[in-house]
Amino acid sequence: MSLRAIAFNKPYGVLPCFTDSKGRPTLANYIAVPGVYAAGRLDQDSEGLMILTADGALAHRITDPQHKLLKVYRVQVERIPDDRAIARLSKGVVLAGKQTRPAQVRLLAQEPILPERPVPIRFRKNVPTAWMEITISEGMNRQVRRMTAAIGHPTLRLVRIAIGPIRLGDLNLGEWRALEEDEIKSINQLSNL
Fold it and tell me: Which pLDDT does position 192 carry in this prediction?
């Protein structure tokens, strides 16, 4: 039986594809499931949940912005955003002449518990950092990073923790699991709303 879809916890520094002519780490270093491909991207310097599937219709439901499937990120930024900065993100910002959809944004009271990164974030003694949770319903190229930069709070670390109803949960870094049929069904139902 072939797997229809899997959830993968992508480590920092891994390319979101299966081959690289420069020999950098790719999904192939972690996933030996034939026929699946990434439903959406997660940049080399970002971490967290990816869904890979052999089902083109499911991939379309996950990636096409018309389906408005929510994607949730934990984001560490430079400096502590004030209410005005959070309101700007919440309303949406203009990126390359295009207004992003409104986002759900909240400042986290404490740093989330995450695995150590092999490359530490840029540390500046006199510049505090803050963690936010940002939920978006589209997926422009490097959207969350570009949004936080647009309000003057560059992203230092980005971890995707959910795509629609699928959560990263306790999936260990570099590991994957098969999605259950009811999880796939819930993606299809949510993307029909």
Answer: 63
